[in-house]
């Protein structure tokens, strides 16, 4: 039995060593790929349409997007068509780039005398794709699009569990028959609760900044913003949960998102729980200013320190606030690395 135990231990040790090697090389390859490819993100999504005027009308009049640039009609030579898998008889192409809210642009292609297939790929066909548009109110979006004659392939479905818990989605068709999607998760997705090292990009995370350019955000005076930021400090120093909750209602929007480098906290309950954990871990620590609060329109920043009376700057950092309708809608937290 002892021999078997030793053998098992050796096997386990070897397996762990092999797994570590695999993880090491996988991480190294990923880092090398990121550095050498130098790809930052998605610039645009290309879509072929049968009628450019129809497509532009849909994206502007129905979805509210903006066409920006136009190229063409551009004649295509035979070599280009062969290399790019176009039919020999297809004519010139016209290209328009559309700004689609906040996120990737949409590039529309219209080929004159198009000899390609006019049949849309099925959902399980190789190369089939769709574009998903984010909305913070999927019910309102569906009602509006239906009033414009848009055909939906069902009703919004709320994901009950798993990584996409809290996400609602539904497919719809464009006038030319392409399948697209509405998606919404105003309170975040399930996987975010586990504080993952990597968060998926989302236009929702840019919604506060995007809305600042719209006319739906009231301007707050600099003095009012500074007062709210001062109260923010009081919130993080308050040890009484009830008093802290009352202060939060005055300063934070109900759907406030606090974005840290390691996690996202959504709403008063999440932030309150995080603050409570800080007080339990460091009962004698307090937050205070390092310098004056900076204000730029509805944006403010606060440089802070946190520590005991003996070491008030044990931790330092900066909070960036985005105000909307009189309260903090988004809070970005930057903690200094003192290594």
From TrEMBL:
GO terms for biological process: L-methylmalonyl-CoA metabolic process. Keywords: Metal-binding. InterPro entries: Glyas_Bleomycin-R_OHBP_Dase, Glyas_Fos-R_dOase_dom, MMCE/EMCE_epimerase, NTF2-like_dom_sf, VOC_core. Coiled coil: none annotated. PROSITE patterns: VOC. Residues 41-185 form the VOC domain. Pfam families: Glyoxalase. It comes from the Bacteria. One of its GO terms (molecular function) is methylmalonyl-CoA epimerase activity. This is Glyoxalase.
